[in-house]
Amino acid sequence: MEQQQETVLAFKGLTRRFGGVVALNEFDMELTNGQIVGLIGPNGSGKTTSFNVLTGIYEANGGSIEFLGQDITSWPAQKVYEAGVARTFQRSRLCLELSIFDNIMIGAHKRLNHGFMFNVFKRKALQQQIKENYDEARKLLTIFDPELADKMFEPVGSLRMIDRRRIEICRALISHPRLLLLDEPSAGMTHEETRELMDDILEVREMIDGLSIILVEHEMGMIERVTDKCIVLNFGQKICEGAYREVASNKLVQEAYLGGE
Amino acid sequence: KDTVKVAFIGPLTGGVSAVGVGGRNSAELAVQLRNADPDAKYEYELVTQDSECKPNVGVQIATKVAADRSVIGLVGHYCSAVAMGAVDIYHRFNLPMSVWGAVLPDVTYGNDYKEIHRVNGTMINQNEVAAKFMTDQGYKTWVIIHDTTDYGKGHDKYFSEYLTENGGEILADFGVPADQQDFTAELTKAKQLNPDVIYFGGLTPLGVRIRAQMDKLGIESQFQGVSGIKSDSFIDGTGELAEGVVSFLEGAPLEKLPGGQFFSEKYKAAGFTESEEAYGPFAFSAMNLILDGIEEVGPNRKALTEYLGNIQDHDSVVGKISFDDHGQNTVAAITPYVIQDGKWVVWEDSEYADGTRKLAGL
Amino acid sequence: MATASALELKNIYAAYDSADVLEDVSLSVPAGKITCLLGSNGAGKSTIIRSILGLTPPRSGDILVDGESLIGLPTHKVISAGIACIPEGRKVFPKMTVVENLRLGAFQESSESVIRDRIDQVFEIFPRLKERKGQLAGTMSGGEQAMVSIGRGLMAAPKVLLIDEPSLGLSPLFVKENFNIIRRINEQGITVFLVEQNVHQTLAIAHYGYVLSQGHVVAQGTAKELSENAEVHEAYFG
Amino acid sequence: MDMGLLGQFIVNGMMLGMMYALVAVGFTLFFGVLDVIKFSHGDVLMVGTFAGFSTYLGLGAIGIDNAFVQLVGVLVVAIASMALLGAIIARYLVLPLKSAPPLNTLLVTLMLGTVLREAIRLFYPDGSNPKRFPALLPTDSWTIGSFNLRADSVILLVGGLLVIVGVHVLINRTRLGMAIRAVAQDEETAKCMGINFKMIVLLTFGLGSAVAAFAGVMNGLYYNEINFGMGLLLGVIGFSAAIIGGLGNIYGAILGGFIFAALQTLGAVALPFASAYKDVFAFAVVIALIAWRPTGLIAEKTSERV
Amino acid sequence: MTQSLKDKLIILLLAALGAAFLVTFIAIEEQAEIFALLVFAGVLIIASAKLGLTDKISQSLSRNERLLNLSSIAAMLVVIFWFHEDHFPLLMIATVLLYVVACCGLNMQFGYTGVVNFAGAAFFGVGCYTAAVLGGTGTPLLLVIALGGVMAAIVGSILIIPVLRTRGHYAAVVTIAFGLLFRTFLEVNDTLGGPQGLPVSGMNLFGWDFNSNIQITENIEFSFYMNYVILALIMVILTFILMRRIERSWIGLNFDAVRLDETAAACYGINIKRWKILSFTLGNFLAGIAGALFAMMLGFIAPSNFAFSDSLILVSIVLLGGMGSIWGTILAAGLVVLLPEKLQVIQEYRFLLYAVVMILILLFRPQGVLPRNLRSYIPGWRG
Ligand SMILES: Nc1ncnc2c1ncn2[C@@H]1O[C@H](COP(=O)(O)OP(=O)(O)OP(=O)(O)O)[C@@H](O)[C@H]1O
Ligand SMILES: Nc1ncnc2c1ncn2[C@@H]1O[C@H](COP(=O)(O)OP(=O)(O)OP(=O)(O)O)[C@@H](O)[C@H]1O
Ligand SMILES: [Mg+2]
Ligand SMILES: [Mg+2]
């Protein structure tokens, strides 16, 4: 199938500095349709920074980012999202005062009608839209945790960490993005919980056409199980790329990241 | 005896509350004395309200007082902006009233309402006399500092007008907010211009600051104020720097009037903790005027209005009161005062007048 | 148990607002040993740590350090009693530099030279921190912040060190390194109370362990016993 | 303009700037600890001045008339009593509200400001009128042309500077300062480091209020006049100064204070057509400055990350 | 009795109680009586909270919003007609209502979107001055009110750039500076009346003069303030509907997201600037229309009405009510406007007492008297 081979995302020589620290150094990367890429590397090697530069939170100091054939290097965050990139954050960034439903709807932004007239005067249509989206959100959340789906109107602040992570992922997925960026989604979970989470994500991927994922994770079990390919960063530079097994047996990677047996 | 309600309005909170409370005490004194008088036909009850010196609040409480039909007469307003907003209401509700402190001419002259009267003079009279008096002393050049409230701006306007008429020259004119602390910038500039007199149009707190800072900067010019600084607190606030400061106040000096001594004694005897301040006697007179009216024509607003309209040569502790066709007291004599040895002294009686002492720069 | 316990919890009940979290938890942390606490998400592990520190004071029960009760003491007094903590989720002071963060770890230590020595020791363990001495901790990467947090915990040189999920967000290499560090700390005579998700590696260094589930202690024993315990196995080894 | 006059403006402006800077330093301290705008700051300053003034009267009453002893007495009493007041405010008004939205602390302190102001106005003898604050410093002056420099101004300037430097050193170089900053950033973790949270909050509020008392006495000594409303505008300006300078940095407070003073002086001097517009001018420039540097002139280093 | 019937009864009872309380509170003048009434109300509230009644009642309320809204309006009408010939109570009620509108504006700004505004009185003042200037020109007066809002929004746009660029305390200073600047400007500049202020001509709608009493029959005369109260009530109702609809829509969600986490909001496509501008402008608009009607009602305005302290009063209403809570705003506006007035009897001591009361309320209800609830998009609907 030709569509399978389409390049979704490409970094070319992406560079980002903070003062003296070079967080990303001439980083090249490519991602094709439907692929799950594991982005791994020691602490402080630039993984999160690459997400931040991609999503427009930080500007790139050099290089370019291409997404679905468009150059999005200096796009603002809003535009990058509109183009189909959704993310989670290493440190959960939910609005704790708002309900689960509200939080998920923040992710659904591009599907909703934000016109003043529509929102204030066309109440019937708006309520219709609310109900439709509610159903959709509920369906999605049910995949992760049916119990949570019954608590749609409870504040997120009252939930466990693990549930917050799930909601954050739902928030990212509800917009049916082309590219999903997951930053350490399993941090703080047990093996069992991690596995469940990954199964759920894979299940969702089936639902969303051509969804590609970049996964940042320190949990190698997870990386091994779900990724099609791995990219290893060290000091902002790509040191290795390939299937997990290849990468894991690389000397450099073992030294810098995995720690030899 | 029937009980009749009369009202007092003034600023009881905020920056000028000292004057307001003094006025209220004086009005209360008038009512007390009347109630103690066995010949009085009615028992009087005083309603007091705080205007906070804010027009919106003033309008509200003016409505409150005026809408209460049992209130027959009102003594009201020290702050001109409040009075300006409230006069319409008194007219609408036909409540006869007399202003006891506000000095903006427009309060009486800006309308044709027959309910509105004023026992104290306007700033016009005051500045007319002040300009003439000072030029007569031989001063030639002025720097004016005034606050940007209606009070300060009004004084600035009329004083400038009359000063030019009398041949004085204004070297500079500074408007300052009424809550300013630091005047060194204005005064430094003033110092450079080296005027004979620094005229200040505003109230005591600012006056004290300006006088004190003049000294800081070594400015030797004469300091001239308006009725707003003619208070004991100005002397308390400036200490020895007060010496030789001149100011002007409507009305003949209290102690020279037959009733003046009486008022001072009674005020002391009544045991108020606060001073009556400069406008206390006016509040007292205004209240007495209203009480006299009620005694005479009965507790009826219309009748009282009529009564007030015809007041001529009515005796009071501030001198004879005669209202013109705008309800303005016309015989408001203006008295110049000078501070001598920590006291406000009527100019004629002072050592400055007889040449023993000299004002600054003369 | 042969050794005396450095820290002992007796029949602790704890709750947030309305939600009861801990019910009748008793456990003892033997002096000089590593004791670990296992349990799934939301079991109440962090709540135990908070109870000890006095951040979430227990509703009833007793907490003893060297036989002295900590109940009712404000947190800084608990710390004075010789307890230090590496809190869950790193919790570095974002607007302070790495060095200032470390210094705060030794807040109750007043000798400047002692503090300097300890900073040097921490730098030895985490060379990355030495490189980044002056960086504001808030701008560091997740793992770097974890290093700051661990380093800061070591600065106190406590009798008992409470550690809540230290390997969260650390690279595999560092996770291993981290367990080595914990072992070394323990070898210096510090009693360690370790909360972890990483069952294999935890049981490998711990002497003794408890398993918590929904606010109850459901299993306890030596590390060996626990790793052979069928239930535990099922639940956590998958 | 001749040099003497220019010098005069500069010295006056510096005095004013110092006054603002001292108030701004107080604000910076409070932001530092609980991230609150403490709107009663100006009024605490005023109460401090009145406390000092009463001390002066008291000393006079028992026959002590040595200016130096009086000065020390005034300062000590004002500073000590305000430090206590600050700690009480922290204990009973600020700490109980620490889990409420920060703006609510603002409201409470605002109301407290009203309480203090009204209390002085009503209960201090003749409190609604301005008072003459004694000149306790040497009043020698040097005059060069139109330039007039008084010894008391110089002493006050130096004194103010010393206080600011002292506070700066305290915050950045001492354990107490470190604890203050730690508490500001994360209360719970600070506690876990063995910091006595309550104590630190009380101390900081005590310190901030003591600085306010100092500024108040300085104000009194310089202007020789005090009144119950003096804190209001000073508070607002001090707050603005702290902000335009940039929070989280004592130097920002100093810079902000001096800029504000400069703007006002400039406005009064250089707007010949209407000096009354000088505040309009100053505040317009403040707005423009903030639009230009949204986190203050000495911007806080970003410490947040995603 | 079924639950829903019970709910309805509770609401009606509450509305009746509220109306009775208001009537008594406004009518009494004696210091002791006021004090007794306040204590009584306080005891009642505390007791019902202790008995767990408050929770039950609030549940009943949230189940029957429509009835609650309608019966509140009815209760308000009862109060208004009770005082139909008493000018002053009506004036105070209208003032409260207009403050509610202005504070809803502020609520939109910092309750929803987190854009702090310490210049509320200035925008209110823009509305007032618009009414004063246009009042005599023959412009239809409903249009004048709208223009008051529009002018406030336009003047506010001067601040858009700094407001968008700043956050937190920095943003606070922008508006504080503007508030001070606005007032000083009005005072110094004589074109708009200077410090003396301006008279404002009263409202006149289709030949109906708002400033004369309404003769119903020979013996029944309504105070002319009735006109303003009714108009203000309508304004409050419309504002209430607008606020509610915005809150319960995607716009409200966007506002909240902007307030709570700008970075995350931006990463999900929310245009921070757009929503901040909308809420700032809309908020100022509300303050402006309230100001315009207020000026017409009062008949006179002056710069000293729009001082920093007046802005702070508006802010304190919002905070006291609970950020983002409309009912809270209504309650707090009543408290803040009526309390000092009711305390007139204690004269110069009243601000002291007022401030003390406010502090006490906040110490016991740090989140405001009626904190905002979680958003429920469609009343009663839970999926
Ligand atoms: N805003 C910033 N200011 C200064 N330095 C920064 C900033 N953001 C990141 N850095 C530095 O850039 C480097 C890369 O950080 P990044 O967060 O991308 O690491 P990471 O690969 O995600 O690590 P981890 O696995 O620990 O999360 C780090 O050394 C970090 O300290
Ligand atoms: N501040 C709080 N308010 C209310 N409930 C809380 C609070 N903190 C934790 N909880 C609840 O208490 C329970 C136990 O939480 P705790 O943090 O102790 O679990 P844990 O075992 O440490 O989990 P994790 O592995 O996620 O760290 C959870 O159900 C959680 O939702
Ligand atoms: Mg990262
Ligand atoms: Mg935990």
Tell me the overall shape of chain A.
Answer: globular
- How many β-strand runs of chain C? 10
Q: Residue ranges of chain C: pLDDT <50 for 5 or more in a row?
A: none
Beta-strand residue percentage of chain C: 25-35%
**Class by helix and strand content of chain C?**
alpha/beta
Bound molecules: adenosine-5'-triphosphate, magnesium ion
The first-to-last residue Cα distance of chain A is 40 Å
Largest interface, chains and sizes: D-E, 43 and 44 residues
Helix content, binned percent of chain A: 40-55%
Q: Helical segment tally of chain A?
A: 11
Supply the CATH architecture of the largest domain in chain A. 3-Layer(aba) Sandwich
The main sheet of chain C orders its strands as 6-7-8-3-9-10
* Rg of chain C, nearest Å: 17 Å
pLDDT averaged residue by residue of chain A: 89
Main sheet properties of chain C: 6 strands, mixed
Major beta-sheet overview of chain A: 6 strands, mixed
Instruction: Summarize the helix and strand pattern of chain A as letters.
Output: EEEHEEHEHHHHHEHEHEEHH
SSE sequence of chain C, one letter per element: EEEHEEHEHHHHEHEHEEHH
Q: Explain this structure to me?
A:
The complex is a heteropentamer of chains A (261), B (362), C (238), D (306) and E (383). Chain A has 2 domains: 1-84 and 177-261, P-loop containing nucleotide triphosphate hydrolases (Rossmann fold, 3-Layer(aba) Sandwich); 95-176, no CATH class. In chain A, the strands form 2 sheets. Chain A has a 6-stranded mixed beta sheet with strand order 6-7-8-3-9-10, with helices on both faces. In chain A, strands 2-1-4-5 form a 4-stranded antiparallel beta sheet, covered by helices on one side. The mean pLDDT of chain A is 89. Chain A has 11 helices and 10 strands. By secondary structure, chain A is of the alpha/beta class. Chain B is α/β, with parallel strands linked by helices. Chain B is 42% helix and 19% strand. Chain B is built from 12 helices and 12 strands. Chain B has helices at 17-36, 55-67, 80-93, 106-109, 123-137, 150-165, 184-193, 204-216, 232-238, 258-269, 280-297, 301-309, and strands spanning 2-10, 42-50, 71-76, 97-99, 116-118, 141-147, 169-176, 197-201, 222-224, 246-250, 334-340, 343-346. Chain C is an alpha/beta fold. Chain C has a domain at 92-157. Chain C has helices at residues 45-53, 75-80, 98-105, 112-125, 127-131, 142-155, 172-187, 199-205, 223-228, 230-237, and strands at residues 5-16, 19-30, 34-39, 60-65, 68-69, 83-86, 160-164, 191-195, 208-213, 216-222. In chain C, strands 6-7-8-3-9-10 form a 6-stranded mixed beta sheet, with helices on both faces. Chain E has 2 domains: 1-82, no CATH class; 86-364, ABC transporter involved in vitamin B12 uptake, BtuC (Orthogonal Bundle), CATH 1.10.3470. Chain E contains 16 helices and 6 strands. In chain E, the strands form 3 sheets. Chain E has a two-stranded antiparallel sheet with strand order 1-6. In chain E, helix 7 (141-157) crosses helix 13. The radius of gyration of chain E is 21 Å and the shape is globular. Chains in contact: A-C, A-D, A-E, B-D, B-E, C-D, D-E. Chains D and E meet through helix 4, helix 9 and helix 11 of D and helix 8, helix 9, helix 14 and helix 16 of E. One adenosine-5'-triphosphate (ATP) sits between chains A (18, 21, 23, 41, 43-49, 90) and C (139-144).
